[in-house]
Write a structure and sequence with these properties.
The chain is of the alpha/beta class. It has 3 domains: about 50 residues, 434 Repressor (Amino-terminal Domain) (Orthogonal Bundle); about 130 residues, Response regulator (Rossmann fold), CATH 3.40.50; about 130 residues, Response regulator (Rossmann fold), CATH 3.40.50.2300. The protein contains 13 helices and 12 strands. The strands form 2 sheets. The chain has a 6-stranded parallel β-sheet with strand order 2-1-3-4-5-11, with helices on both faces. Helix 1 packs across helix 2, helix 1 crosses helix 3 and helix 10 packs across helix 11. About 0% of the residues have low confidence.
Length: about 325
Amino acid sequence: MNIRDIAKLANVSVATVSRAMNQPDKVSPKTLHRINQVMQDHHFTGNPFARNLMNTKTHSITLLVNSIDNRFMLDVIRGAEKTLLESGYILSIINMTKSLEKMSSFIEFLKEKRASLFMDGLILAGSYLNETTYYQSIKDIANCPLVVIDKGPIPQVTTVYVEEERVMEQVALSFKRKNIKRCAIISSELEYRFSIRRCDILQRKLREQGIEVLPEHIFSYPMEEAEHGYHAVERLLPHLPQGIYAANEPLAMGALRSLHDYGFSVPDDVSVISGENSKYCEMMIPSISSIAYANEELGIYAAKEILSAIEMPSREPQTIILPTQFIPRES
């Protein structure tokens, strides 16, 4: 006889039985009586060690990510891990490898297990189109502090994200100053909400500056491989637009290489801007104009918010917006 058996016989959840054993004041008298009666009938006393474990902090935070094969996620992990270690917490990473099946399995795992046995809080960094429902489902099931690294506000969930409107306007103005009339967008995968949002914002800012973006000049690719940027340029030929925005550094580098191989000069024939900045953008020939997002700071602030939520469970959900910077260079 174990706690699951008691829950089944009393027609309640395992979590309710746990509360009856550890926090009986939070269970209705009628339900508490029914659970106690089942325990007495079956001579169940429970496991004192397990009860103690349920009431003890694990000092472990779980970070759920789509993929670790890109600089953005690695920067986020670095920031979160550093901040948590300084506060005596360890960071556990669950990599979904862009798999909806894995996400569903994780949700089912949370349904079956008591989340507080293996984590004190959960940070989510990216998912798919059903994100808002997904986040709320996770929050309801996990029953622990939750922080989302994405644009909000998502109802009753703390969110940490970067400013996007102003920096995309700076990108559009940069293209306009170079007298560019048509632009292509090499986006990251447009099944992600943040990719759709940034693509839509950029299109709007370009239109406001009189720059045309044809539907056939918008591409959706995984962010990890430079070859996708290379192939996008090939698909633009022979009617190559004067400007190309690539969502991250590998896509921009692939586009630059393709333009070089096909005999185009950057920036004389085509101007290129990257939606991600690193030291390599400055070292390229030509150096690549780019957007510097506060990726590591996203991890730092997400970790700070999860720690605050652990210490102050009644604290209202927060919305944290971090600044971005457009860095003009030769491209």
